[in-house]
């Protein structure tokens, strides 16, 4: 499977096609198709050393598959050496197994115009994932609720530059842990028509995600097509726990995509050096991706790298640092050499407020992510305080910046119009371009323009209240939520989804564990 | 002259050598020597089109040398076609003349440890240049004074990551226009021991700059060595005014370096397209650099590109935009193909406050500048509000971020220690790297660490006053200024410089024009 094939022409129609008819008119950019080169930061010699060492790690040290006898059986059958829960993988085996994973795949959305192609030279942007807290200027920092969750899904739906609705945009802590995934999925499915992620916190919740997708897209469609991309974190160093692997097994078996992603705070879960961390990242991803292919050859999977480093003074993770950038570039090179889609970067920062620190660290990470060849950028907007907080203001601030990435990635045209020789001849030395024919013909689309930041002269800005970026963002959050329009959905589909959630919830007692 | 040669062993010693003995112990990083590749954004075909078109501009349209008969004579003698003040340059002539300019040169500082090498794979960082206003949290936005100027020179001297003291770090508006340059130069020479820039606002002021350098460095030394790099803006489109060219003539004749830099707000002073703007930039730089070589073959000169674009709604210049980034990359490629050092990028932003907007736009520009192969980055810190304001807080915020560029540029080591295989073996699956031998040996230098930003947990940060980045920066400005130590200077040199300034000031009436 190089690319999953869209099969909208099948008989019987189904929910996906019906949903498509009801899509709203909110303008969203197509995923980014890069027309610029990647920055190849490491040279071939360095990459070969790292690849050699990663094979040595798999062969000599091995990885643990915890509490998962079936996984050990699969590995044994594939030729690995099993010692308790330790799996030692002969040199070359993991990479060979990874070869059946597709280099690119389509993730379908209920609105087909919002399908995304993950891999190749593309970049798909998805919002922040996982924060237990939210923050806004008015109410400050607090535990996230399902209302916050729904608000962030709405903001994502309203964003022109986000291609993907994401997954746990924040943790709805007011909903029992064992039922949260149902409300989260229902929100993504009903409040957005962009693609989304499934639950990974229990294998049964992954199965619920698949079952709800069957209602939304139709059972036949889900069997043949990828409709979810879900986040499978590796318990670094070198440990694959049964919860995450259980979810991966469900998804892979159903041809649903997984991001296999080391979760590394360098200095704690990996060596303090960039090369050492890249070695571990590669070993972990090779083992995880190979395992996905043992579950089902051809299952779509993404090479993930979530890497930050520890502040040796405070013990806190740091973001937007040069070492993290170097790892982002290097891991991208390693992913391309494996022919796998690559996930990394995001709106990372360690700030407690959406202030200058947050923006310095975020902008550094976003730019490096673009140039590192990232194909799927989770956390592309909204991240604050090391990922503990989803920030309303920062969500719209970051989402606005993502527009600049689109324009940057489009590259530089040198067609006759872009050469502008007529304009140069018309204006000449000492002239002015504002009124010339070329400017008049192109000024509307020539330059990317922020929909949030302030371009006004000081005096105007001052008269309007001298607002900083956070205040501008507060106003924009309100405007977007006030203007939100829910994409329509076939009533039967909505009813079936609602019924599924209600039945599932009724079938088990609340649990906050 | 590939590289000017330092001649410290000459008899007689001189001010420079004496000054060196008195240097302070403020730690400053050596200029950046990149160990990472540049991003080559445009392909060869696009660059060749732009180069061809730039020659067409010079040949068919030409450039104006205004009010400068001597320049017209020089151009005529070199083979250009003169028509009034218009100079039309036959295809290939400008590029051929540029070939005598050095690809790299040393700018000497009075402290030889702070000499910088401009060109090659190096990056030299200099502070903001030109703002008539300053801003700080306490006193807000106001006209800059000589006290502010001295404060910024002190902050530059105290910055670990700034290699250069710059030039007009702000306009000392309380000093008459015709005398400002004397006080500014005296401040750079006495309050800093880093390299600096000369005056360009009148040819006579350029000559004063050279004369003061002769006092500081010794007459013989200045004759043979570059001790100033000065900013010569082109009056885009395609116009070379007599003030700037007069200053360039003085500097080139004295083997002092000039940045020949188009000053372009795209859409106003250049076409609205990236390729069209690059064509104009190249034509202008070729004409300006060629002219410097007509004045004196071998004079050191830098390919400059200051390019922003206009906001078509407000008419204001915008910063940190994708089009500006593309031009920064493209102009760097064109400069390298000419074998010239390259100046571009900086802490550009259009914000009125050192807030998230300022940081997003700045971080984007700094990162793109690093990866675009910039050799001399003017405005690397302190820029606010489109360059109208030098911000105290942003100066230290940006200067801190410049540290990250140093680490990023150092590249990724794959030596045995960096490979960290011992650490991977020691820790193994499920282990922890904090205590392992490799971490203990390297943790102090492994990760770049901000000296400004907040890495503390939320609770600690909250107890300490919940300060945003601007508040942290206010405290850092105060700390640096309180801790400032003036580099010592031979009393005779100080006396001679002070006497020169006093005599010059007494020789003319004040003028604020």
Automatic annotation (TrEMBL), chains A, B:
Example GO molecular function: methyltransferase activity
Annotated segments matching region Disordered: 1-22
Record bears the keyword Ion transport: no
Keyword Methyltransferase among UniProt keywords: yes
Biased composition regions of type Basic residues, renumbered to the chain: 1-10
Gene3D superfamilies: Trimethylamine methyltransferase-like
InterPro entries the record matches: MttB-like_sf, MTTB_MeTrfase
Pfam families: MTTB
Enzyme Commission number(s): 2.1.1.-
Keywords linked to the UniProt accession: Methyltransferase, Transferase
Single biological process term from Gene Ontology: methylation
Enzyme class: transferase
Family indicated by similarity: Belongs to the trimethylamine methyltransferase family.
Name the UniProt record assigns to this protein: Methyltransferase
Source species: Salipiger profundus
């Amino acid at each position: 499977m190089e690319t999953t094939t869209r099969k909208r022409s099948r008989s019987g129609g189904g929910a996906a096609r019906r949903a498509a008819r009801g899509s709203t008119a909110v303008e969203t950019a197509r995923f980014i198709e890069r027309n610029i080169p990647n920055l190849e930061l490491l040279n071939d010699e360095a990459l070969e050393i790292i690849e050699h060492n990663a094979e040595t790690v798999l062969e000599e040290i091995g990885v643990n598959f915890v509490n998962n006898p079936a996984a050990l059986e699969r590995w044994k059958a594939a030729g690995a050496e099993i010692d308790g829960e330790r799996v030692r993988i002969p040199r070359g085996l993991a990479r060979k197994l990874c070869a059946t994973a597709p280099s690119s795949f389509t993730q379908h959305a209920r609105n087909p115009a919002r399908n995304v192609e993950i891999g190749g030279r593309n970049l798909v942007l998805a919002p922040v994932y996982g924060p237990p807290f939210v923050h806004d200027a008015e109410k400050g920092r607090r535990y996230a609720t399902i209302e916050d969750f729904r608000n962030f899904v709405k903001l994502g739906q309203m964003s022109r530059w986000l291609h993907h609705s994401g997954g746990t945009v924040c943790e709805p802590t007011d909903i029992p842990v064992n039922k949260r995934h149902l409300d989260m999925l229902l929100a993504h499915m009903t409040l957005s028509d962009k693609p989304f992620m499934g639950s990974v916190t229990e294998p049964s919740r992954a199965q619920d995600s698949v079952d709800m997708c069957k209602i939304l897209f139709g059972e036949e469609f889900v069997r043949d097509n990828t409709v979810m991309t879900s986040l499978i974190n590796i318990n670094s160093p070198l440990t694959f726990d049964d919860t995450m692997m259980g979810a991966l097994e469900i998804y892979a078996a159903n041809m649903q995509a997984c991001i296999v992603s080391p979760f590394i705070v360098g200095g704690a879960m990996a060596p303090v050096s960039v090369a050492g961390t890249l070695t571990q990242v590669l070993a972990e991803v090779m083992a995880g991706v190979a395992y996905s292919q043992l579950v089902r050859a051809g299952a779509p999977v993404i090479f993930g790298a979530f890497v930050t480093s520890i502040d040796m003074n405070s013990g806190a993770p740091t973001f937007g640092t040069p070492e993290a950038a170097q790892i982002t570039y290097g891991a991208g090179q390693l992913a391309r050499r494996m022919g796998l889609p690559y996930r990394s970067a995001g709106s990372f920062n360690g700030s407690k407020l959406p202030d200058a620190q947050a923006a310095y660290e975020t902008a550094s990470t976003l730019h490096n992510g673009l140039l590192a060849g990232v194909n799927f950028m989770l956390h592309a907007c909204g991240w604050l305080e090391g990922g503990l907080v989803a920030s309303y203001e920062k969500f719209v601030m970051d989402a606005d910046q993502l527009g600049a990435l689109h324009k940057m990635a489009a590259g530089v045209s040198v067609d006759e119009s872009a050469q502008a020789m007529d304009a140069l001849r018309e204006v000449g030395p000492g002239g002015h371009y504002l009124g010339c024919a070329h400017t008049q013909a192109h000024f509307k689309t020539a330059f990317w323009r922020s929909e949030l930041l302030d371009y006004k002269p000081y005096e105007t800005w001052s008269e309007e209240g001298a607002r900083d970026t956070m205040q501008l963002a507060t106003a924009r959050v309100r405007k977007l939520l006030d203007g939100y329009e829910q994409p329509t959905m076939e009533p039967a589909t909505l009813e079936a989804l609602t019924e599924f959630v209600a039945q599932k919830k009724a079938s088990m007692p609340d649990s906050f564990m």
